[in-house]
Specification:
heterodimer, A: mainly alpha, Tetracycline Repressor, domain 2, Four Helix Bundle (Hemerythrin (Met), subunit A), B: mainly alpha, 54% helix, transit peptide (chain B), COA8 (chain B)
Chain lengths: 414, 194
């Protein structure tokens, strides 16, 4: 062994490899079998149910034997006498082969080190991920739905300003959320590839980006649409970043706060169109509020391990029965709220009728989740919620009470 | 807390032989000691290339899942810049210690829980094929709830500290960026003046 050590130090010009490293790696990863070197690697096990939005499959824990291509040994430094040369050559060749393979594994780890230099080409992609662009798009579409369902003639300019303003506000809120949660995101499978976690962007830049979205966004809403919408937007950013995000680690009440955050965008759309906070706006907000529960509670059911380890206070971990009960309750509430729509003159009576099948279906899945309390029922409920909401809003739009009808009615009454 | 940055100019030499210094938050075992760093538990022997002027970020740590950063020490580092770098380094070490211990205790606790549950069922830890038997998520739920409540106070303290540090780092970054821009503006003015 000391002999090998001397050879290591003598032959290796890759100074970062020490004897300890070499041996450790050889034991763990490199095995010799029939003169072929193989690498025994365990694929990193997914400790938790796969994140719903990322389609990874839960791998069985097994080792994978991969063959390493033989690396040609470095030319060994030879000493004078031929016998000793031969002995040394054989020995150092063997050692160098080990070194080369160990060096291969080491340099693989070294390749994973990245320079923290901002690449301008990557910046749009990085900012898109920082602002959770897909979620922002969904938020903007709920605000647009609120705008479209509001009982006023459609104004395209106002619509575009509302959409852009809401989008900017959402980008800002999401960026701040990621800025706050770097170490927690690092520890959860679902979020470990976010830009701040990977060091693709500095915290300062993230905050600057958030500010440069928030200010124009809120200004656009306040000045270009109306102050009420602007105020709602600013309030929502505050609620999400300063209430919901820290509360996630303090109390399960965060879920209810988060549901309000989700309910505000359609209200903003409505107030942007009408200029006032009507009962219809609150109904739309109520529908989004109730929808959040089956959506989020089902999602959180599969993330319990990550939440527990990361210190997140979620119903699914602390009060699992309540988690399922609340999800079911709000599925049923959606039926009730859909029935309120014609009463508040938002839609015709067609709406509660044609939305009944999808509302009953989601309630059925909610019931299954409540009863079975397993991964498959939670996943079914979650995926259902993803198409249920856009469909519901679309049906609402198609069943919208036309303005002509309203005018006729008011003429009849007067 | 170990591994404070060596004084500029007196740090470890990089292979090209230039006196460029990189402070390391989590040194390697033998290698760090050879280089005059305090060895820590991690076996990271990465050394950034000598010509690089930026920080370097590594793969997630095995225990803490946090990505270590090797901070670059610029030649003309201002006192403010140095304060920022040292604070970031200190925060990194603090974060590393917290999450490494957190994750290790989680894994240990999980292992013990699974073992005790299997024992109660009359089963061994591994089945006939040698595979470890795992419990379903429903059976693990008791452990998750218990672990979360046990560590709640720890997390509350950590959160408070983390928010403070995060804000401080970002604020210092802003100050350093402003200082750099100011300096550059000052040089430009003298150039124009000349």
């Amino acid at each position: 062994m000391p002999c090998k050590f001397m050879h290591c130090c003598g032959v290796a010009n890759k100074k970062w490899i020490t004897f300890q490293h070499l041996n450790f790696l050889k034991r763990m990863y490199v095995t010799q079998y029939n003169k072929d070197l193989s690498q025994q690697a365990k694929p990193k096990t997914d400790p938790v149910a796969p994140p719903f939005l990322e389609k990874k499959h839960l791998g069985q824990e097994k080792t994978v034997i991969r063959e390493i291509r033989p690396v040609s040994p470095l030319h060994p430094s030879l000493s004078e006498t031929s016998n000793r040369n031969e002995f040394k050559a054989v020995n150092s060749a063997a050692v160098v082969e080990d070194l080369a393979t160990a060096g291969g594994v080491e340099s693989k780890e070294e390749k994973q080190w990245k320079e923290m230099k901002l690449q301008l080409d990557d910046l749009p992609g990085i900012l898109a991920r920082l602002s959770k662009i897909k979620l922002t798009a969904l938020v903007v579409s709920t605000a647009s739905a609120g705008f479209a369902i509001a009982p006023v003639p459609f104004d395209l300019t106002c619509f575009l300003l509302t959409s852009i303003g809401t989008g900017l506000a959402s980008c800002a809120a999401n960026s701040i959320n990621q800025f706050f949660e770097v170490p927690f995101d690092s520890n959860m499978n679902r979020t470990k590839n976010r830009p701040l976690v990977r060091g693709q962007i500095s915290p300062l830049l993230a905050v600057s980006f958030a500010a440069s979205c928030a200010v124009p966004g809120i200004a656009l809403l306040t000045l270009g649409v109306n102050p009420l919408t602007g105020a709602l937007g600013a309030f929502n950013i505050f609620l999400y970043t300063c209430c919901y995000t820290p509360m996630k680690r303090m109390s399960i009440v965060n879920t209810w706060v988060g549901a309000v955050v989700g309910a505000i965008p359609p209200i903003m759309g409505w107030t942007a169109a009408t200029g006032s906070l009507d009962a219809g706006a609150l109904l739309l907000g109520g529908i989004l509020y109730s929808w959040q529960f089956p959506h989020f509670n089902a999602l959180s059911w599969g993330l319990r391990e990550d939440y527990s380890r990361g210190g997140y206070c979620m119903m699914s971990v602390t009060h699992p029965a309540m988690c399922r009960r609340v999800a079911l309750r709000h599925c049923l509430a959606l039926i009730g709220l859909s029935t309120m729509a014609p009463i508040l003159n938002v839609t015709t009576w067609n709406f509660p009728l044609i939305s009944l099948p999808i509302n009953l279906y989601i309630s059925y899945l909610g019931f299954r989740f409540y009863r079975d309390a397993d991964r498959s029922s939670s996943r079914k409920l979650f995926f259902c919620s993803l198409w249920h909401l856009p469909m519901l809003l679309l049906l609402m739009l198609t069943c919208k009470k036309s303005l002509l009808e309203k005018e006729d009615k008011s003429e009849l009454l007067s | 807390m170990a591994a404070a940055a060596p004084a500029a100019g007196a740090g470890p030499r990089v292979w090209a032989g230039t006196r460029r210094c990189f402070s390391r938050a989590a040194g390697s075992g033998l290698l760090a000691a050879e280089r005059g760093h305090e060895p820590e538990s991690r076996a990271s022997s990465f050394c950034p290339p000598a010509h690089s002027c930026n920080d370097w970020i590594g793969p997630p740590d095995r225990h803490s899942n946090l990505r270590p950063i090797v901070f670059h020490i610029p030649k003309n580092e201002s006192p403010l810049g140095r304060r920022l770098r040292e604070f970031r380094q200190e925060t990194q070490v603090w974060n590393q210690q917290f999450w490494a211990s957190q994750n290790v205790s989680f894994r240990k606790g999980k292992e013990e829980f699974v073992y005790s549950r299997l024992k109660a069922k009359g089963l061994e830890r591994k089945d006939e094929t040698g595979q470890k038997i795992t419990l379903s998520a429903e059976e693990m739920a008791d452990f998750y709830k218990d672990f979360l409540s046990k560590n709640f106070k720890k997390h509350v303290c950590y959160n408070r500290e983390w928010y403070k540090r995060n804000f401080t780092i970002t604020f210092l970054m802003g100050q350093v960026a402003f200082e750099r821009a100011w300096r550059r503006l000052g040089w430009k003015k003298t150039k124009v003046g000349n």
